[in-house]
Automatic annotation (TrEMBL):
It comes from Rhizobium indicum. This enzyme is involved in nucleotide metabolism: it produces dUMP, the immediate precursor of thymidine nucleotides and it decreases the intracellular concentration of dUTP so that uracil cannot be incorporated into DNA. Transmembrane segments: none annotated. It comes from the Bacteria. GO terms for molecular function: dUTP diphosphatase activity. Its cofactor is Mg(2+). The gene is dut. SUPFAM superfamilies: dUTPase-like. Belongs to the dUTPase family. It is an enzyme of class 3 (hydrolase). This is Deoxyuridine 5'-triphosphate nucleotidohydrolase. Keywords: Hydrolase, Magnesium, Metal-binding, Nucleotide metabolism. It catalyses: dUTP + H2O = dUMP + diphosphate + H(+).
Length: 156
């Protein structure tokens, strides 16, 4: 007998009033890395993002990111390629202790106005493990071959 345990961490979602009727955010293909996030703007009031402008777009859900993980809010490449729409703070960080609505900070880097309608898939969230380091102040850095060289110090 084969017993398969689902070892994936659980992502609890809480639907907010503005998320009523929206599809549950989900992986759109079997191997998708990100969960697509949908715009919870009002049906009757699509959001027009003018060139160069930004907007914080609601998703209609609280995501309870499991402890030891983060949610990375990333752009969708199709919107970026076709319309110049991206996430200004990419990748956005959703902390595991955040209990507010997940929002997406979109910016229009294209040349045309972009209309965001209710339910449009505007970004994706990748659930990724994080390590919290123990922070310790010391007085001198240890020596390495690289030393302070950076920002192209090894050539092109
Ligand atoms: O794209 C994003 C980025 C952040 N957040 C939420 C979840 C995250 O846990 C919280 C804080 O984000 P961050 O730490 O990046 O922003 P901050 O400017 O440091 O705000 P805070 O002082 O609240 O930590 O805002 C989103 O909903 N979407
Ligand atoms: Mg912060």
């Amino acid at each position: 007998m084969n017993i398969h345990h689902d070892t994936r961490p659980t992502l609890n979602l809480i639907r907010l009033a503005n998320g009523e009727g929206l599809d549950l955010p989900t992986y759109e293909s079997k191997g998708a890395a990100g969960i697509d996030l949908r715009a919870a703007v009002e049906e009757a009031a699509p959001l027009t993002l003018l060139p160069g402008k930004r907007a914080l777009v609601p998703t209609g859900f609280i995501f309870e990111i499991p402890e030891g993980f983060e949610g990375q809010v990333r752009p969708r490449s199709g919107l970026a390629f076709k319309n110049g729409i991206t996430c200004l703070n990419s990748p956005g960080t959703v902390d595991s202790d955040y209990r507010g609505e997940v929002k997406v900070l979109l910016i229009n880097l294209g040349e045309e106005p972009f209309v965001i309608s209710r339910g449009m898939r505007i970004a994706q969230m990748v659930i990724a493990p994080v390590t919290q380091a123990r922070v310790a102040e010391i007085t001198a850095a240890s020596e390495t071959v690289r030393g302070a060289g950076g920002f192209g110090s090894t050539g092109v």
